[in-house]
TrEMBL record:
It comes from Paenibacillus thalictri. The keyword Membrane applies. It comes from the Bacteria. Gene3D superfamilies: MFS general substrate transporter like domains. This is MFS transporter. Keywords: Membrane, Transmembrane, Transmembrane helix. InterPro entries: MFS_trans_sf. The chain crosses the membrane at residues 12-32, 44-64, 71-90, 96-113, 133-159, 165-188, 272-290, 296-315, 335-356, 362-382. SUPFAM superfamilies: MFS general substrate transporter.
Length: 396
């Protein structure tokens, strides 16, 4: 498995960013949860985050018409500084307003980061690069998922949340330094602007194979957000002890590593089979959550973690291979639409989740049923989507 030098630099950026995003995903959500133990608080934080993320992704792509990816990553670092400053010093009477203000710079971080990563990967990635990138990125993610939660659980026990917020500035500065090493990609030299008549849906998704990406992304957005939100809340419901929460996240990471080892040993198995296995594990995990006991909530998260590994590796690799057949500007337009098609259903799920008060109500069951149907639909849509290059060749 060979990885080009530009992709190695993107992986370095990925590692630096993952430390920050992993901390936010666990401990900032936990910080919000602990103050009221309300599903609505965590849901509201993630809802504002994804709205801003969607806008920031588009803004990031637009900024690349003037600046380079290095500028965007520096903006990510600045947004990170602002996030931890607000967490340390901002105090408001209105809790919902306070949560929303915290979520805005986090959404900017995710949006600009996703824009930089995806556009860089599309432009530099060719063929096997995608499989290599997502495989190594998964390893990096799992190492961070093992070390980060335990380390910061001890840090928070010793010096509290405020101390950990200040410590995160070290990692934000590290990301700022890394920004000087990544490939300086820009769209400034492209002969046409990003947003013109060619940005229309009918022009971007110009052949049937590529259009199957749309329902695939819409379905994926639903079950990804259901899993992302409730996996956090399930974990918080099992224990309030930060070290226990950290160790549970280590367990989830180890289950993903085990899945990766199996995936590599059985390379002869078709990608469509792995995707089906992943979706089955995710659906099984959702159903285990209905049993409501702490042990079954842990089993639920293990199964969905395993499923997400297979989904993320196979599904992302297939879609990026499709997009790599296009020009840089075409890829950027596809990525913009793709991000919106992923985040719009995420936002809808979060709005619906605002009505979930606990795990024993009809809104929770209905939302889970919808997520399961969407998860089962993904392999069907994906099978048609990955045929896009062949379809495009035939039409040519």
């Amino acid at each position: 498995m060979t990885i080009t030098q530009p992709i190695k630099r993107v992986l370095l950026m990925n590692a630096a960013s993952m430390i920050i995003f992993n901390y936010i995903g666990i401990f900032v959500n936990l910080y919000i949860w602990e103050q009221g133990k309300r599903i609505m608080d965590v849901t509201w934080f993630n809802l504002v985050l994804f709205v801003v993320w969607s806008l920031a992704f588009a803004l990031g792509a637009r900024l690349l018409s003037v600046f380079t990816t290095r500028f965007l990553i520096r903006t990510v670092a600045i947004s990170g500084c602002l996030t931890f400053l607000l967490l340390s010093f901002l105090h408001l009477d209105s809790r919902m307003l306070w949560i929303a203000i915290i979520a805005v710079p986090v959404g900017l971080m995710w949006g600009f980061y996703a824009s930089t990563q995806n556009i860089t990967l599309c432009i530099f990635g060719k063929g096997k690069d995608f499989e290599g990138y997502f495989s190594v990125a998964t390893i990096i993610g799992q190492v961070v998922s093992i070390v980060n939660p335990v380390a910061f659980a001890f840090v928070i026990k010793w010096i509290g949340y405020s101390g950990s917020f200040l410590l995160m500035f070290v990692f934000v500065i590290g990301l700022l330094i890394v920004s000087f090493t990544i490939p300086p990609i820009t769209l400034a030299k492209e002969p046409e602007p990003l947003f013109n008549q060619k940005m229309k849906f009918s022009h971007v998704f110009s052949y049937p194979g590529l259009r199957w990406m749309v329902p695939s992304c819409l379905s994926a957005g639903v079950f990804l957000q259901f899993q992302g939100l409730f996996a956090i809340i399930f974990t918080f419901s099992v224990s309030g002890d930060k070290l226990v929460i950290a160790l549970l996240n280590v367990l989830y990471a180890l289950s993903s590593i085990g899945s990766m080892i199996l995936y590599r040993k059985l390379q002869q198995v078709r990608s469509g089979v792995w995707l089906a296995v992943g979706m089955t594990a995710i659906c099984g995990g959702f159903l285990f959550a209905l049993l409501q006991y702490p042990l079954f909530l842990v089993v639920s998260n293990i199964l969905t973690t395993i499923g997400l590994f297979y989904f993320g590796t196979v599904w992302n690799t297939g879609q990026f291979r499709v997009m790599s057949k296009h020009t840089a500007m075409e890829q950027t337009r596809i990525l913009l639409w793709r991000e919106w098609f992923l985040n719009i259903p995420r936002i809808v799920v979060l709005i619906l989740a605002m009505f979930v008060e606990d795990f024993h109500t009809f809104p929770f069951y209905a939302l889970m049923g919808f997520a399961i149907l969407c998860a089962l639909a993904v392999p069907l849509f994906s099978a048609r989507n990955v045929d896009a290059p062949e379809k495009m060749t035939e039409s040519a």
